[in-house]
Write a structure and sequence with these properties.
Layout: H1 3-8, H2 11-22, H3 28-35, H4 39-51, E1 71-78, H5 84-93, E2 97-102, E3 109-115, H6 118-128, E4 133-138
Antiparallel strand pairs: 1-3, 1-4, 2-3
Helix pairs in contact: 2-3, 3-4
Length: 158
């Protein structure tokens, strides 16, 4: 963490981050009330957090089942290095691919996808298998979702 980030992430900065992670649509007036700053002061703090790249955006959380994408799966890929660019190009074109992470270990990538049906999942796996071996896990439930990152996450206790 740079010195500038250290200044931005004081106790108030962390409280701003927590509040916005919980409810990204808070007005500056309400956010200021929650963290003990005036509207202009909190607006300036948020602007600085955005400029530093600490806050990277504000998004709606969508219930995939309600928009007819009830099946979520993680596809692990073991892909030869020379196939990485082509695989990533395909994933950037697939609207079902929500995330892709490059990994250490025996697999190259893990891809989070949503689909309308098992048949669509099978088709998608077929497309991806052209880039290497796949292993798929279908999500049954998600008991821990999108936790708020707090200062404590930066401190390892042992």
């Amino acid at each position: 963490m740079t010195l500038d980030h250290t200044k931005l992430l004081d106790e108030v900065g962390w409280r701003i981050l927590a509040a916005l992670q919980e409810e990204g649509r808070l007005s500056f007036a309400e956010l200021g009330r929650r963290v003990g700053l005036s509207l202009p002061a909190v607006a300036e703090r948020v602007r600085r957090l955005e400029e530093a790249g600490i806050i990277t955006g504000y998004r709606a959380e969508v219930n995939m089942a309600k928009i007819e994408l009830p099946i979520m799966a993680f596809i692990r890929m073991n892909t030869p290095r020379d196939q990485y660019p082509a695989l990533i190009a395909l994933l950037n074109k697939l609207p079902q691919a929500l995330e892709c992470h490059h990994l250490t270990g025996s697999e190259s990538f893990i891809i989070k996808i949503v689909v309308t049906s098992i048949a669509d999942l099978e088709t998608l796996i077929g497309q991806l298998s052209a880039f290497g071996q796949t292993s798929t896990s279908i999500v049954l439930s998600s008991p821990v979702l999108k936790r708020v990152i707090t200062r404590e996450a930066t401190e390892i206790k042992g």
